[in-house]
Amino acid sequence: MKIHEYQGKELFRQAGVPVLEGIVASSAGEAVAAYEKLGGKIAVVKSQIHAGGRGKGTVKDNPDQRGVVVCKSADEVKAAAEGLLGKTLVTIQTGEEGKTVNKVFVEAGCDIARELYLGVVLDRAAAKPVLMVSTEGGVEIETVAEETPELIFKEHFDPAIGLEAFQVRKICKKMGISGAAAKAAFKFLPAMCRFFVDYDCEMAEVNPLVITGDDQMIALDAKISFDGNALFRHKNLLEYRDLTEEEPSEVRANDAGLSYVKLDGNIGCLVNGAGLAMSTMDIIKYHGGEPANFLDVGGSASAEQVAEAFEIILSDPNCKGILVNIFGGIARCTTIAGALIEASKKIGFDVPLVVRLEGTEVEEGRKMLEESDVAVINAVDITDAAKKIVEAAG
């Protein structure tokens, strides 16, 4: 689950990670009131979307309007807010379709002496979280990793202990941080690592992390995502979820207990088991097709869930065919066949449907389909299924 910058900074403040004062606004009037309340001469108006690269991003149809604007007056704040709110912002991470800006964050300015990068993620190979820092703040970390990987420094840490003092000293030496700024780092860096662990984050990124003219260390950004499987431990975080930032079909699938990710292809996939779903997508591509989604109905899906899965797949206007690939274990082939027949009665199938069934109660399931009125293209194995759906979908 992702959250907005202003929400992340609210959590940072609670966790002892220094941030600047800021106020979220949903209209130009609210943005001006926020600027006046902050009481400074300089403020920054920041678009709030679930994507990075906002500073270099531009509003669709208005390339002069950036996603982050430095303002020195109430009039400039008003113009920036009007230029962003309700508009589509395109960044390196949104793709050409962009994202609609529904809120802006008006934040107080500060005296920036240095811009750094900081991120905490889980290193699965090491089975530990890792703190990554770089002197290249304000630059996409992917670009730094590709062009100057030697400028990224990493420190793995034990989640039960956190970042230790000797590790902070190592980082400060590598980054050229000394004096009062190093003293600030001894508070900031361990606090960020504790935050990552305590909130079960998938990622906690600050870009840029700034050192001010008076040697304070401040999070000038907050890009945070949480492990959805751990949200039961953080019920308070659910109020931060912004459904307008999520794909509607994915929200619908999640509510139905289905694992679904929308893709850009034209062949819908309904599969039980994540590994089989990945293999199905791979073999579709191998035979020249493009999957329209990842959809794992799981091992214990009910007929109602499977019917809902079909409705979600067919709601995609790009879908020109569906491949059902089931290896019946816990989920019996008869359950899938029954759900398929019910879905056909309820919504109908106006695209080709290729079905490959194998496993528990497979003969019974095939017989159910044969005796039904559903137009099914049967497949004997996964390769046969992939070839047939690619051909049928054109």
From TrEMBL:
Family annotation (Pfam families): ATP-grasp_2, Ligase_CoA
EC number(s) given by UniProt: 6.2.1.5
GO BP, one annotated term: succinyl-CoA metabolic process
MF GO annotations: ATP binding; magnesium ion binding; succinate-CoA ligase (ADP-forming) activity; succinate-CoA ligase (GDP-forming) activity
Cofactor(s) the protein requires to work: Mg(2+)
Subunit description: Heterotetramer of two alpha and two beta subunits.
UniProt name for this protein: Succinate--CoA ligase [ADP-forming] subunit beta
Annotated organism of origin: Stieleria marina
Gene coding for it: sucC
